[in-house]
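To whoever picks this up:

The parser on our side crashed when reading a file containing two proteins. I've narrowed it down to the boundary between the first structure block and the second sequence. Both blocks are reproduced below exactly, byte for byte. First block:
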Amino acid sequence: MSFLKSLDAAASGLSAQRLRMDVISQNIANINTTRTENGQPYRRKIVLFEDRNQNKPFYKYLSENAKSKLGDAKGVRVSRIVEDPSPFKRVYEPGHPDADENGYVNMPNVDLVTEMINMISASRAYETNVTSINTIKSMALKALEIGK
């Protein structure tokens, strides 16, 4: 993998993880939103990633010739942001304006613990990509010093 391809792959990871952290923050901010524009509670969003190499499925990288094929790696990108289909939480709050006739309110399907774990994971992945970029930069500077 060349110097610039390595930087490009790490940079794509940075932007993908930044978007993931933004979506996680949106989920946390809407943890108590019981009514959105469509009249339903907020539904948790999930970021899906895919390889920027559209023409090669991941299993091909795991073949015997993986070392030669890794040179074609182009990084990661966000393929789409989807809504979590898990059911809403039902909470008994008879005084709530969105309560049904039995006093239950449909709350968003956002779990704070899950979101915090995902935020830590995204943050660590972001830090890993920054470390990768710094390592590439250091190697390039050392290569330039050799040429002096």
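<<boundary where parser fails>>
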Amino acid sequence: MESIGCKWYAIYVRSRHEGVAYGQLQKKGVESYLPLIKRNRQWKDRKKMVEFPLFPGYLFVRVNPCPSDFVNVLKARGVVSLVSGEQGVPVPVPDGEIDSLKLMMGKGDDLDIYPALREGVRVMVRRGPLNGAAGVIIKKEDGYMLIVNIEILGRSIGVKVSAEDIEAV
């Protein structure tokens, strides 16, 4: 595939189909990037290092910004959609962001994903013992606090949370 004029795009794939979609796109000759991280996983009888997608549900493709290339990507097994902005127009990912991501992936094993958190943003806990709790996030010392406000009492309660366990709502 000709790379002049090509841009990187994020694509959304079916749950746990990142590898399938990546393989399909490779077979079609579409330049693709699926960043993977290794994590130690514990089973009842053993521990093992397992590769996981850095961004579950997403991978990147480099294609010409034209309908025929977009359709070619969308026809790959496991692909749901291109990440789009207003009016369903696919939004390119800046080359610099992909280049920086590739550099970081090549340099370290201790990478973690952090949502774009800002103080005052309403979040939902998606993992761990507080799964399902909602509140507002604030920065406290070296971490984040989930603040739940009980308006009728004029009181709030806060608990430290891991950035990887929460997402903006």
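After patching the parser it read the second block fine. The first helix runs from residue 18 to 27. The chain has two domains: 7-107, 122-168.
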